[in-house]
Amino acid sequence: MSVPSTTPRPVAENSVWPRLEPLLPQVTKPIQYVGGELGAVVKDWEPATVRWALMYPDAYEVGLPNQGVQILYEVLNELPDTLAERTYAVWPDLEKLMRAHGVPQFTVDAHRPVRDFDLFGVSFATELGYTNLLNAIDLAGIPLLAADRTEADPVIVAGGHAAFNPEPIADFVDAAVLGDGEEAVLEITAIVREWKAEGCPGGRDELLLRLARTESVYVPRFYDVDYLPDGRIQRVVPNRADVPFRVHKRTTMDLDAWPYPKKPLVPLAETVHERYAVEIFRGCTRGCRFCQAGMITRPVRERSITTVGQMVKEGLEFSGFHEVGLLSLSSADHSEIGDMCSGLAEQYAGTNVSLSLPSTRVDAFNIDLAQELSRNGRRTGLTFAPEGGSERIRKVINKMVSKEDLIRTVVTAYTNGWRQVKLYFMCGLPTETDEDVLEIADMAHEVIKAGRAATGSKDIRCTVSIGGFVPKPHTPFQWASMERPEVIDGRLKLLKQAINADRSLGRAIGFRYHDGEPSLIEGLLSRGDRRVGAVIRRVWENGGRFDGWSEHFSYQRWVDAAAEVLPGYGVDLDWYTTRERDGLEVLPWDHLDSGLDKDWLWQDWQDALSEYEQDDCRWTPCFDCGVCPAMDTEIQIGPTGRKLLPLTPVNGLKLPTGAQQ
Question: If you ran DSSP here, which 8-state letter would residue 47 be given?
Fold first, then answer.
């Protein structure tokens, strides 16, 4: 594939484009490095006082749709004296050429070297992106270790869900932000602006100190970790008097005040999601014990139905997308989801705009919602997540749904015209047995039989998708042991045999799974401490890149690196992964406050072991998780009593010039 060259590309100040362009015909998908998407912003360099490079540490096709990066990109570029550009992980073929020709890590917007920016913000959705972070730092010409950097280097700030335990990358990042980024990046920008206006007093150390004093930016260099003889952490304490003992998460309470993205990026190359996505609420109180996102994003904050309607209208008009994703951790739980879906379906009746709820709870989906989603005749995929195969294991994980609920819900979808649904489960959950996993096969068989009976058709399919359980910080399962990969793989083999035992049913059931090896490494990284940083570095030095991609991931590379590095600290891979923690152990992230009370999390862990289900506090009295009193707030839900606006039906969307068809 050749790079389009019909229009001469303007070269920005300090652009690497003249050196990069000749390399692009030699790599796969060169279009992903070109920039110039609809929605992209290129601002003049010199007038900007504060300059951000924002990165999602994965390939363009995964990183560009990332909602968090798009929001921060737009929020920052709205400031008149601030500039933000994007960078993504480069594929190994381009990396090799960049190293050979001296081309540094660059932004796709104006192809400026990342090292020239004041701040390098990296958003992590998964810990398996850590090796890509190290690669980007090194390609940028920035010292790998934060301790070696000077005022000439950007301040590297980690964010995203994985930043709630940034200890494994503490040696490589200068700071981490816990929680929502909209207001946090503005505060950081203001601090950098003021520091630069004063002539950069005290150098890099003073700037980092000012960030740390906010009590919501974690600067690892200002904290020391002491260890006990058996390898456990004794304490994590500040090494200077003017930084806080605990760092608190940021929470944006009024989502209606932040209706972003207003101008979504429309990709030039194929990406994993091509839709206009609206986050309809943040937070979740369902209390699924494995779910870090549900725990760390509390309290629930709903975006109003009128704001959602306005965002959809403006986002579609700008982008030309044909699909609207109503995003949240459990979208069907929005208190006005029925009116929202019916209003949007009415608004776009007769157009080719489709609606989707990417996260759909089994017990929240109903026939009315199904009909609204399919009103325009386009049926996007439906995924339901029972998570556990047996009633018993669903009590352990607090996923309160019965087999009858699931079958009733899926039959509703089939009778409303869907012919395929996806069922998502996890393997390796605490207290799990072979029998718990084998019940997934029984459930899948029942789904097919019920669907055929309800529709009178044999054209009914479901896909069973299995992910490996990974214990995450700030969840009740943060103390849990992990199963070894061979146990997970053995259970998956038994499950596949059970699904196919009845051939007439088995041929209608797809089976997709992730084996146990990547999950174990993700577990090492999710609950690791600073000593794990040496493992990450060794893996990267040995060629580790794109560890979230099965074709690039090497389990043996991680095992070998852990065996080389960790014994020097008196620990090993099993110590971090298959070992259960006790209630008195100091966890690596205890000094980072997600708002959740550790005693409450421990009690919920004990409730899990006794198979006790916890109610959703959105609709029941408070059960003292700690978030609301700690943040002096409360759950925000409707109904507001308002209807979707504008009410005028759209008879056809005009696509903007350059938008994808």
Answer: T
Q: Which pair of structure tokens corresponds to residue 357?
A: 């709820």
Express each pLDDT in 75-132 by its tens digit.
999 999 999 999 999 999 999 999 999 999 999 999 999 999 999 999 998 999 999 9
- Are residues 27 and 165 both part of a single domain? yes
Read off the pLDDT of residues 249-293 as tens digits, 9 standing for 90 and up.
999 999 999 999 999 999 998 898 889 999 999 998 888 999 999
Cα(112)–Cα(654) distance, rounded to whole angstroms?
34
Residue 154 and residue 28 in one domain:
yes
Classified as helix, coil or strand, 195 is: helix
What are the tokens at 311?
Answer: 């965002």
Q: Which residues of 255-289 are buried (b: 16+ CB within 10 A; e: fewer)?
A: beebbbbebbbbbbbebebebbbbbbbbbbbbbbb
CB atoms within 10 A of CB 582: 8
The gap from C-alpha 240 to its chain's centroid, in whole angstroms, comes to: 33
Inside any domain, residue 86: yes
- Give pTM, 2 decimals: 0.93
Contact status, residue 86 vs residue 92, Cβ threshold 8 Å: no
- Non-local CB neighbours of 269 within 8 Å, separated by 6+ positions: 29, 31, 32, 60, 61
The residue whose two tokens read 């339901």 is 384
CA atoms within 13 A on the CB side of 395: 11
Residue matched to tokens 């600067």: 219
- Would you tell me the crossing angle of helices 516-526 and 555-565 to the nearest 10 degrees? 40
- C-alpha to C-alpha distance for 316 and 174, rounded to whole angstroms: 38
Any domain includes 561:
no
**C-alpha dihedral sign at 190, 193, 197, 201:** positive
Residue 464, strand partner residues:
423, 511
Handedness of CA 160, 165, 166, 169 (dihedral sign): negative
Burial class of residue 148 in the structure, from the number of CB atoms within 10 Å of its CB (0-12 exposed, 13-18 middle, 19+ buried)? exposed
Task: Judge contact between 164 and 592, C-beta under 8 A.
Answer: yes
How far are the Cα atoms of 299, 423, 480, 591, 595 from residue 296, in angstroms, in the given order? 9, 25, 18, 15, 8
**Distance, first Cα to last Cα, the chain:** 21
Residue 174 belongs to domain spanning = 16-228
CA distance 48 to 83: 6
Question: Is residue 233 classed as helix, strand or coil in its secondary structure?
Answer: strand
Task: Order the strands of the 155-159 sheet from edge to edge.
Answer: 82-88, 50-56, 119-123, 155-159, 175-177, 217-218
Query: CATH no. for residue 350?
Result: 3.30.750.210
Q: Do the Cβ atoms of 573 and 566 come closer than 8 Å?
A: yes
457, burial (CB in 10 Å: exposed 0-12, middle 13-18, buried 19+): exposed
* Residue 414 contacts residue 382 (beta carbons within 8 Å): no
pLDDT tens digits, one per residue of 374-427: 776 666 667 888 999 999 999 999 998 888 989 988 888 888 888 889 999 999
Instruction: Kindly state whether residues 158 and 266 are assigned to the same domain.
Output: no
Q: Classify the phi-psi angles of 36: left when phi > 0, otherwise alpha if psi is within -120 to 50, otherwise beta.
A: left
Number of H helices, E strands in the chain: 22, 19
Residues 160 and 302 in one domain: no
